[in-house]
Specification:
Layout lengths: L2 E9 L3 H12 L4 E5 L2 E6 L2 E5 L2 H7 L4 E5 L2 H10 L3 E9 L2 E7 L5 E6 L5
Parallel strand pairs: 1-4, 5-8
Antiparallel strand pairs: 1-5, 2-3, 3-4, 6-7, 7-8
Length: 117
Amino acid sequence: MEILGTTLRICVDDLEAAVAFYEGLTGTPALRFERGGVSVAAIGCFLLMSGPPAEIDVLRKVSATIAVKDVDEAHAALTRVGAKVIAGPVPTPAGRNLIALHPDGSVFEYVDRNVPA
């Protein structure tokens, strides 16, 4: 499995204030979208999320987002080394993702940019 990069996940109460800070910090404009009632802003290596407490509490359990070349390949590699895929693979606005529980208890999201047609 080829890992292309990592995105830091940050749950915030005030998305607009956080976007202003991280845009200023990185010099990069936010890419925004909504998913499952959660507002998301991607800025450089930061993924800011804000929404209902029940949704955010679930999102806080995922340590980071790991970009991979292919989610299916990641699924096979994760399963082979003893991780448990707990969600996905599913299509997203930016490609496909899955959520995996590593044997040490860490939870990570794996994403690719294979956007569905």
